[in-house]
Request: fold
Amino acid sequence: MIYNLRKPAILKQLNSIYDYELAISYLKDNLTKYPMNLKIALPAFSWGVHFQHGKMKGLINNTIFEDYKEERFEYIKPNLFKSKTVFYLKNHPINKRDMIRYEAVNPPELRKMIKYLKKNIKQDSLEIILFSLDSKFFNKNYNSYEKIISDFN
Reply:
């Protein structure tokens, strides 16, 4: 499972779902020593990490970047948004001035990871599992994922 590598509750971090360099630091010394065949699970989802008064309130699953580009949010920086009003987003109550950090996976980064794994895992075959296939993010990026997997095989 190569996702959810960091704690989402830290407001200043960029992405708790996936970080290529952090994943490599966990994997680099262990791949060749592992005694059993491996299956690889990679992320195919995104979410919003909801902060209220600087503390994490929860995760807003199954959202895409466009959900935060609407006029109810103020753009702070590439993945950070501040609410301008009170409303509900995916049944989550959002208060004025709440912060939401949008987190997603960059498909080219996954391609890079698969290339690394293919080179460093010495077994006859390698099964790749994508989690979670029912997400809006995956549906939006389906062609990218399909290309990554077809290039792998």
